[in-house]
Amino acid sequence: MLDAPFHAEGAIATAGGCLASVYLAAWTLLHTVGEATAWDVIEYAAPVGEKQEVVERVMSMVRAVEPALRRPA
Predict the structure, then answer these.
(1) Contact present, 16 and 1 (Cβ < 8 Å)
(2) 30 pLDDT exceeds 60?
(3) Does the model's pTM come out above 0.70?
(4) Which of 20, 33, 50, 73 has the least CB density, counted as fewest CB within 10 Å?
């Protein structure tokens, strides 16, 4: 068990808590259609008046695992 709301290794991701589905959706979008589209989709679904904060929180959590996804050169 990890004490983290989101974790990914390679092509496998897991999340827990009330934002689990948002983290997994953002991570999937990031790796299939790119960051700009992921940002737009998460922003569209975020609560009114909290869009910027929610998108920044979600994208920063998802991007935090990015180095593990990159292959060494």
Answers:
(1) no
(2) yes
(3) yes
(4) 73
